Each structure stands twice: as structure tokens, then as C-alpha cells.
Amino acid sequence: MRRLALRFHLQLLVATLMLALIQQTQAANSQAMAKAQQFTLPNGLVGVVIPDNRAPVVTHMVWYRIGAADEPVGKSGIAHFLEHLMFKATKKIPAGEFSKIVSRLGGNDNAFTSHDATAYFQRIAKSRLSQVMSMEADRMVNLQLAEKEVLTERDVILEERRSRVENSPSAILDEQMSAALYRNHHYGIPVIGWEHEIASLSRKDALDFYKAYYAPNNAILVVSGDVTVEEVKKLAEEHYGKLKPSAAIKARDRVKEPPMRTPLKVELKDQRAGKPMWSRHYYAPSYVTAKPGEAEALDILMKIVGGGPTSRLYKKLVMDAQVASSAGGYYGGSGLDSTKIGVYAVPNDGVEMDKVEAAIDAVLAEVKEKGVTPGELERAKANYIAEYVYESDNQSTLARRYGWGLVVGRTIPDIDAWPDRISKVTPEEVQKAAANYLELRHSVTGTLLPIAPDAPAAKPVSGSRS
Amino acid sequence: MRRLALRFHLQLLVATLMLALIQQTQAANSQAMAKAQQFTLPNGLVGVVIPDNRAPVVTHMVWYRIGAADEPVGKSGIAHFLEHLMFKATKKIPAGEFSKIVSRLGGNDNAFTSHDATAYFQRIAKSRLSQVMSMEADRMVNLQLAEKEVLTERDVILEERRSRVENSPSAILDEQMSAALYRNHHYGIPVIGWEHEIASLSRKDALDFYKAYYAPNNAILVVSGDVTVEEVKKLAEEHYGKLKPSAAIKARDRVKEPPMRTPLKVELKDQRAGKPMWSRHYYAPSYVTAKPGEAEALDILMKIVGGGPTSRLYKKLVMDAQVASSAGGYYGGSGLDSTKIGVYAVPNDGVEMDKVEAAIDAVLAEVKEKGVTPGELERAKANYIAEYVYESDNQSTLARRYGWGLVVGRTIPDIDAWPDRISKVTPEEVQKAAANYLELRHSVTGTLLPIAPDAPAAKPVSGSRS
């Protein structure tokens, strides 16, 4: 009785907290909706401004609607390679000076490449915004690549691949799982590229890619911080407005997956693996490709099933059955195309992989058959909304939220309505999402098995033509 | 003692027969080497002539150095689709008349598409060779495609896919296994194409592909039969010589596979499957990509391991252990790029898949560890050489042998030297090939499991974006 009463009080507390959070969010949200503002320059560049005048700093980002999944066949890694090369010379700025100048101005900068987008950003004093815009606009069209610098940078990237992938059995397994899961779509090709293809990327490849995709009408400018939309638009007109749009830019038209009909299994034995690992990816729609409400339901589902130590997977495998030292899952729904749900576990010493897999399958079967409880649903919603509110307090996170959303074709109202949509997900929608997408036939299951150091080395045989 | 003596006599008989066959082959071979002759027209068209004057008929083939593995991304099936459309109209010949004309001339004709080549051929009276050449040269450059015919033919191909793949669980499994095995190379995409991509192929796609790849400098003319090289060259000059070469034709540069590091497993459950099936593909070099002697050793290896009812797999699984109703293996080494070794078995009723797999793995482990016996080696060689001699008696097979060899970049002397190279394969080379290429990390294992008709239908969920 005592316990029941406690549970009731906890649920009441959670419900009350959630209500408060939703109200706070809706306020923050309506504020955000008023605040994130968009404009488009005559040359096609889209601008988004998220004012935040608590400190005289800004985050300036330029997003290109181009990523690793758009690369030409045989040129994997070129999007990421070009991202590196964008820090080389233009007519105005010598090679390697871009970041140094930003640093001397008191700011910092970086860039990243994903399958769907490439972005460049600086965080800097408001008074320097015009100068970094001038530099970013300059390298959008004036990149100068010296053969020698290209080759040196290629070595840097090959080393990056060696340290991040080749020396990491779990990264190799992940790469092999993606290659198996996507039969047709280029999400199956690693963002950094296949080593043998990186090794043959040339200056010409980089320039071809640059000329094809870097243009104001393929870019989204995002500025968050101590600015007004009028200020940003004026600066954008001055720096980006003078750039000519490219007639070659077209809407992205990616290949689609054929129907998935067979579960796949991938097994990696590696003497460098510290612990065994079990991992599964299910093919699932993204926010862009899902039917209305589906992606939100998948977010809720995977929070309940695998989000942290209160999740079903953690409780069942780690706490109750004690077959794993960690276990969880996630939904990766931010892609332009359908991507995946991930589930994983690290078996405890001496526990067979099959036993761990059976325990996971039981958790997944239960949620497919019986759905989730109202308490779980409310906690998951409260958790997401709390995260959303928390993240909305961060200038850089806000810039990424809108930049990422717009680069995959979503709109500001769509992005802003997310907490509201999350709060409306029903238990039926969650169960339906589980039934539809935790489907073994659309999955790849990977296992990583450490082997004794004296076992034959897992030296891969290259598939290159002789 | 009786049995030993008999075995000795049998081995002697085999050895004697083989010696006779090799001598016969070397004679046939030197004859063939004198006979298969090659010329090149100024426009780049390569001609091969294999005279055979036993009957006044000829086989006329035109091979294009273009196949399904060369298709643009997202346009899978276009090579095969175009092959169908080549039987539509030119300025001179109305749609659908090509084959009817050949038939009225007393001949027959057809065409085929593979990952590496597309070929068109007619078998016809010698006196009609000039006429079919004229027609083949005409459709090499003058294809006329009406929108309506293209759409009708696309439906024909979608129906072909439905009947050949969608209605065949073993074909679906094979397709899924190839998609998994090749992480990067387009051998992972079916020749007929993915259904959703076939469905969107257009007249423009077909014409773009046609214009890009159909030209005399991308074609190999092969004529076998009652002709001399002089006659064929004269006719070729008359009909093909007037066609302009295309400046767009370049050497094929296919993507390569990244290193293969993980065994893969694919499982298909289908209520339409009559029997369970176990199948494995190992990634292996082709004659074009292998080091000298390797491909020949692989041919010998797989003849011994899996070629027919005297093979190790058949004897162990079907006759001795009686776990399978059929079992075998093969090496598919004819590709332009590295392809595969296949191994398969059909389990007997009530025998677990795992038991069959263990029996197969034992056979493969034994050959890797202990190699093959001299008797097995000699029988395999004799068998290949007998097949070669037998096939050399057939006009159409000869035309295909040289056409296929040349279209993947081999030469007539290289093709003719095959029996000699096969006869020189050593037991060490066979064992080394087994050790190098029967490697689980470079494999995909597929299982087909019938399920009860009242089990949930294996309806695939399409991965198309909504």
C-alpha cells in the first residue's frame, strides 16, 4: 500500500512537472516562433535569425544542402575532404589562415560533414560578424587549391580514418552493419569514405564537387545571438548578396531502398575488442520520410525502450537479469531519408551473446504486443520537453536545430511545433510504431567478439582489382 | 585387394583418357589459335572470326562493353531495358520487326544483358550475314523510341521481374545475398534492376544510355561459322565501318570493394518456399582480377569440392551423411571484376540447417587444411578439358567464348591458353586458393526457410520516401 501510494504520488508529481514544462515550452516555443525569422536573398540564399541578446556574441553558420550521401559513385569521402579543404586558401586569405583569423578576433570556428549536410560555423563577438561573413562568403566561391596542400590534407584524412575507424573494432562493425543494411541508399557508405577511395581523391574531384554544390542558392545562413533580423539581412545582402547563384543546383533526388525482406547478421571477431558487443539497426523512416506522427512516436518509443538507466532495456538486462553491463537504444530520425533505430548491449563477462539477444528480443516483443504504460509515456514526453527547453537556452544548439531542420527541407513552424506534437503522441501510436518498425526483416544485427591475441590476425583482404 | 586393384586400374584409365584429351585439346587448341582471328576497323570496332565450314550457317554477335554494373545511380535495370528496346524501331525497320525479319530469313535471334556486357546475336544462313549485319549496324546508331512503346516495354520488364524474382523465394534470397556481399560494387544491384527503379525508367533514360555507350568503338563483332576473316572484314567495313566512333567512350572504371572484414548472414522465411535451402557466397577474384594461376586453381578447387555427384560436398552430404538431397558449389570467375564462389545444399526433411552448415564447413575446412588428392586433381583437369573440347565443337558456344573473353578485356591467345593453364595447376595452388578464398570473413551465408501458409505473410515494407 505504501509503495502504491508512493508510486501514485510520483506519477502525480511527474504529471504536474510535465504540465509545467509543456506550459513553459509553449511559452518558450511561441517566443521562439516569434523569434526565429527567415528571409531569402534574390540569389536564393536562405537566412535564419534567432535573436538572443543576453550576451554580445553570435553564432554564425553556413549550411550546404550537400552531404556524403550525395557524392558521385567511387568518390566517397569527397564531401568531408572538401570540408577540410575549405580551410585552405582563397585569393584573399592564405592557406590555413581562416581559423587563425577567427581566433585572433576572439572567436572559434569549426565545420562538420554528415550524410545529408555540410556546415561551417564561428562563434564570435557581435562586432566581428561582418568580418566572418565576409570570409565565409569569400570561401563559398573563391576557394584556391594547390595540388600540394590537397595531397597533404588527404594524408591527414587517411590518418583520421585510421584512428577513428581502422583502430576501432566497434567503428568497423558499425561501418559493416550500415553497408549491409542499406542495399541501395548511400547511407551505406561511410561519411569519411572508403579508405581506397579517399586515397585516390584528387584536387580536381574536390573542385568539381565544390563548383557543383557550393553556391548561395544551395546554402542556408543561420545566425543566432545578439542580432536582429534586420541587421543580419543587411549584412547578408552586403556579403552573400553579391554572389551569383548557380544554375546547376537542383533539388536532391536520392536513390531509394528496395523492399527489405531479410534479416541480416554481421559478425566481427577482433583481438583489439575489449568487450563483446551486441548491436542491431532497424531501417526506419526519418522525420522527413515518416507519415505524420510516426517519427514522434518512434522518438517516444525508443526513449521508453532504450533511453538511459530508467529504460526497459537497461532495467531488464542490466538491473534485473544482469546479463549486460549496459543496454539501450535510440531513434535516429533527423535524416533527409529513412535511416534507423539502434539497439545495443554489452554482455556481462561469461554471458553468451544468444542469451543477451533473447533478452533484448523479449523486451522488444513485449512492447510490440502490449505497448507502453501511461506513466512511461508521460515521463518520456516530459523528458523530451525538458531537453528541448534546456537546449533552447543555448545559442549554438538553437542555430543547429534550425540549420539542420532547414537543410533537410523542414520549415521553422514545423520545427517549432515539435514539442506540441510530442506531447500529443498516444500509446496506440507508440505501439503501432513498435509493431511496424521493430521488424526483424528490416534489420541488421551485429556482434563484436574479442578473440585471443594469439588468434590469427583479422587482416582484411582488399577487394581491389589487381 | 580386388578393390585396390580396381581403383588402380580406374586411375590409370583416367590418366590415359586425360592424356588423350589434352593431346586432342592441344590439337584443337592450336587449330583454334590459328582459326580465331581478330581485326580492328578504323572506327574502333573489334572483329573476331572463328571459321567453321561444316555447314553453311553463321553465328553473328555484337557485344557491347557495357552492362548493369555500369548503370548510373538510381537507374538500375536501364542496360537490360535498353536491350529490350533495341528490338523496337529504327528509321528503316518498324518496331518489333527485327526478329520477324530474321525469322523470315530462316534464322533466329536473341540478346542478353549481364553485369558486364550486353550482346545481340543471330544464327542464320551464311548468305544472309550481310543483311543481318546491315540491320545490327543500323540499330547500333539509329534507334527510334516512341514514348508509348517504351512504357509498354517497361510493363513487360516489370512483369518479367515479378515472375523471375518476386515469385521465386530463392531468387529473392540470391538478390538479398548479393546486395549484402558487395558493400560498394554494383554487382550488388540486380541486372534486371530494383523494381521501384525500373518503374521510373523513362524514354530519355534509355536514349541517354544508348547514346553514351552504343557506338562502334564500344562494340565487339564476333562471327563464327562458314566464313573467312577476309569475308567478314569486308562485310564489317561495309556495314559497321561507316559508323562514326563516339568520343565519349572511355575505359570502364568501376568502383572497388573496401576490405571485407565480417561474415554476413541473410535469412529469408517464405511460405512459398518448397524446401529449405542453404547457400553461401564467398567474394573471390575473377580471371581478370586474379593473380596468374589463381582463377584456374579456383576452377579446379570448386570442381573437386562441388562439381556434380562425384564432388566432395555431394559425397559427404548426400551420400555419406545423408543430411542433404543435393549439395554442390561453383566458381563464377568470368566477370570483369571480382565476383564469387558459391556453395549450396538442400537439407533433407527434418535435418536442421545448422547440421548441414556444419557438414559443409567440415568439407571446406578439410580441403583448406589437407588440400586435394592427385587423383581428384587429374579428374578435375580431365573433366574441364573434356568440356572445353566438347564446347569447341559448337559454333554458338565458340562465339560466346571469344565474345565474353574480349568484352572483359582478355585476348585471344589468353583465351586459347586456358586448357594449357588448367593442365598445369598444382595441388599446392589449389590448397592455397582454398585457404585464401574460402574465408568466412569474405562471405555471406543465406538460408531459405519455408513457413506454414497461415504464418504472417512476408510482405515487405518498401523503403520509399513518402
Structure notes:
- Two copies of one chain form a homodimer.
- Chain A has 466 residues and is an alpha+beta fold.
- The first copy, chain A, has two domains: 34-239, 2-Layer Sandwich (Cytochrome Bc1 Complex, Chain A, domain 1), CATH 3.30.830.10; 264-450, Cytochrome Bc1 Complex, Chain A, domain 1 (2-Layer Sandwich).
- Chain A contains 17 helices and 13 strands.
- The first copy, chain A, has helices at residues 2-35, 78-85, 97-104, 129-141, 147-166, 169-181, 195-198, 203-213, 229-239, 294-306, 312-320, 353-370, 374-391, 395-407, 412-416, 418-423, 427-437; strands at 37-40, 46-51, 57-64, 108-113, 118-125, 219-225, 257-260, 264-270, 277-284, 324-332, 339-347, 443-450, 461-463.
- In chain A, the strands form two sheets. The first copy, chain A, has a six-stranded mixed beta sheet, sandwiched between helices.
- In chain A, a hairpin with a 5-residue loop joins strand 1 (37-40) and strand 2 (46-51).
- In chain A, helix 10 crosses helix 17 (427-437), helix 11 crosses helix 12 (353-370) and helix 12 packs across helix 17 (427-437).
- The radius of gyration of chain A is 24 Å and the shape is globular.
